[in-house]
Amino acid sequence: MPASFSTIPPELICQVFESADDFTVVSALAQTARIFYRVWRENPTSICQAVAPRIFSNLPDAERLLDIQEEAEAVSLSQDNREQKSINRAKRLLFNARCASAVSNTWVGWIQPQPLFDLGETPVSPSEIARFQHAFYCLWTIAVIENTPHLHDQVSAFFDECSPRELCGLNELVDWAVSFNENDFGSLGLDLHNKFWKAGYNLVAERFMPYKKYQSGFNAWSPGHYFAFFNDTQQYLDLFEENCREGY
To answer: How far apart are CA 3 and CA 17, in angstroms?
Structure first.
């Protein structure tokens, strides 16, 4: 059977990869035969660009984090190792996604039994998880910038692009991460209480400070004093953002 694969045009094999539902399928295909593995090695960028939108709700955030991580490493890549760079980028994209999923799952597990949230049997929705993961990717990007001296000139530009709504989400994520006692994410090596993350927390707290006075009026109306991520509290977030613009 493997011998017959050699008659399949590489372009067709690449299309098979690009039609995969997720990266588990991509991984399985790459192990099917040598020609499949070679096609994967030669086309990781196009394959990732085709598959990633199907499984990432925050792909632009994930790609921006990747760009910042690569800038932080300041590695000069020659023409000869561009292929390896693409492979490494795909692997890092998946690792970062596993981290975002692990943290958001932990947050969901923490939210559900909290009596203050009064969620009952209603599960946290995909859109609520997507908002949380958006904030997580942004916070991770901020932490990389803050911990990399030659990137410090990008801090202001990053925050200038953040609306009060996004800053509120970042601040709530920081509040949760700081107060979260459990910190076990298995083999991922995440430590939300170490100096790397705390540098990001401090910067978010500093940037959100001017808006904090506009937040207090809504806390009492929202579950557990959180309202940035939940569908039912977006109305309060709209009012919060409006008050920030008008300076109430």
So the answer is: 19
What is the value of pTM for the model shown? 0.83
Packed helices 44-55 and 10-18: angle between N→C axes, nearest 10 degrees:
20
* Three state DSSP letters for 135-191: HHHHHHHHHHHHCCHHHHHHHHHHHHCCCHHHHHHHHHHHHHHHHCCCCCCHHHCCC
Q: In 3D, which of 21, 50, 199, 180 has the Cα closest to residue 107?
A: 180
Q: Which residue's structure tokens are 């991984």?
A: 27
Tell me, what DSSP letter sits at residue 229? S
The Cα–Cα gap between 50 and 44 comes to 10
Give me the count of residues in the chain: 248
Q: Are 64 and 162 in contact (CB under 8 A)?
A: no
Alpha helices in 59-149 (DSSP H): 59-73, 82-111, 126-146
Report in angstroms the alpha-carbon separations of 121 from 109, 117, 147, 149, 206: 13, 11, 41, 46, 37
Q: What are the pLDDT digits (tens) for 100-126?
A: 989 998 998 887 755 555 555 567 889
